[in-house]
């Protein structure tokens, strides 16, 4: 009886079946990993754009309330005082460029860095 059970268990998968399963899992992972990493990077760009938008609106309010004129020094002071914890997810540095807030990693557009997307 024990010998019969061992023979049934040993006949579970052949080597070809096991290699086929491993190959299919490899194909699925090869497709899924770049897609997931693109989703993560896109989410980080969106978070950065939203953070810059929030900092920009509050910076304008700060200038109006404090009756100050916009400059890079005033902006650095504002960010250090009020937005030290709001940062780019990719550790970019927010800077005032003209009237807009620029991220050193993502630029100042809606999450784009001026790169042409690959279709
Ligand atoms: Zn950024």
From TrEMBL:
It comes from the Bacteria. InterPro entries: N_methyl_site (IPR012902), Pilin-like (IPR045584). It is found in: Cell surface. Its main location: other. The chain crosses the membrane at residues 12-33. Keywords: Competence, Membrane, Transmembrane, Transmembrane helix. NCBIfam families: IV_pilin_GFxxxE. This is Prepilin-type N-terminal cleavage/methylation domain-containing protein. It comes from Gracilibacillus marinus.
């Amino acid at each position: 009886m024990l010998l019969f059970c061992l023979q049934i268990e040993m006949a579970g998968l052949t080597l070809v079946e096991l290699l086929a399963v491993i190959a299919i899992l490899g194909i699925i992972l090869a497709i899924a990993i770049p897609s997931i990493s693109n989703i993560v990077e896109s989410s980080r760009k969106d978070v950065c754009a939203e953070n810059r938008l929030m900092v920009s609106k509050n910076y304008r309010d700060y200038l109006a309330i404090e009756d100050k004129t916009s400059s890079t020094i005033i902006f650095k002071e504002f960010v250090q005082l009020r937005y030290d914890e709001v940062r780019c997810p990719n550790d970019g540095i927010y800077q005032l460029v003209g009237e807009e807030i620029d991220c050193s990693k993502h630029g100042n557009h809606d999450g784009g860095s001026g790169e042409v997307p690959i279709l």
